[in-house]
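User: Can you help me understand a structure? I only have the sequence.
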Amino acid sequence: MILTNGMFYINAVFFTGISFGTIGTLFFFYSLSSILTVLIQSKKRLFFKDLNMFVTRQLGSKINTNFASISVVCIVLLMTIGIFSIGYSMQHVLSSELRSYAGFDCSFYDMPSNEDEYGRSFTGLKKFLDENENIKFYQTYRIYDLEQGYTELDVMFPEDASYLKEKVLNCISLSDYNRAMKMQGKEELSLSDREYAMLTNYSLLTDFANALYAANSSIVINGQHLLPVCSLVGNARNGLEGVMFIVPDEYTQGLHSGTSVLNLDCKSSNKADTFFQQLAEFDASNTYEERNYSYYNSRAEIYAQATTNKAVLSFVAIYLGVIFMITCAAILAIQQLADTADNKYRYDLLKKLGTDEKMLNKALFLQIACYFIFPLVLAVVHSFFGLWAANDTLKIYGDMNIGAGITVTAVFVGLLYSAYFIMTYVGSKSIISKK
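Assistant: Let's start by predicting it. Here is the structure, written out as tokens:
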């Protein structure tokens, strides 16, 4: 249910899937002791080997008695794996894609409602920039709104990008795009008549853009049908969302301008610091009618925000992961130590019957190992499907290397879990060794 519904939609289907998973976990551990006993008893040679009969009875009794607490431990382990893996992967996305998202030292935005207002966009700002010796260059472009919406295209729209369903398509002119690429030292684009290219800033929409190209899907501008020339030119940055269509200049005539953008670069980092001090004074001392832009953001602000997000994600992932992991391991360890103490007389009886210490220690090791491993194995199975769903949902933020997050989580869980297991085994062995 979670895989089908996704994690963006917190609805009845989502909660039903969570409920079924929780109930299924309880039933699994409730029936595990019986299934385990039947399976081992069916293998006579295994059942009667060493103390396997004793281990099976003891382990079955423990699981049957503590199935509820073991289920809770399993679910908390699932949360630990999920939080740690996703937290690490998300901060990795913020690190790896930070530079490409901050393509310019500063970007200004204006949302004119008509052509007259567009003509005034950045008028006051340009006067300020032309007189500023810290600026290397600046360039403006317009984002146009089409009448066609995303749902009107020939390709199935991705469900996880439902926030764009009600939006219309946006386009920029070829000359504006090429000027922006020239500023960044990147390759320019050529388009013939009735052709368009695409950009996107979300990995989630990369497959959608590729599908538009594969289906040769057309967009309609002023009654003219344009066809795709390539599936994806690059990434749209600095506030552009969804799929951005690049079209020949003549097709933008008469279109409504939704947003005007001005990008600039400074001559150096020191010049940039001086410029932003001057910009702060200019922004504070002038009204919108005087400066002619709505808002701006800088590369430094994007870096600072990303650094803050990384710190928060890392802290939450590490803190909650450690707390949940210690809680799970401590619950299992306490239960095992208490159970060993309660059943010490059984081990004493086995000693009187002639069982050597090596065989007793092996039986104790198997009991504790199985008790620790069973909830972990089911948590790993749950997390496989949970991380699958989460990975599909979080593609909106960029390409997530979930494998790296899983690897780090596996090392963390393995080390901490193993440490508690070893301490539990040593403590339990000490209990049964006492006279």
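Now, to help you interpret it: The mean pLDDT is 80. The CA atoms of residues 280 and 390 lie 40 Å apart. Let me know which part you'd like to focus on.
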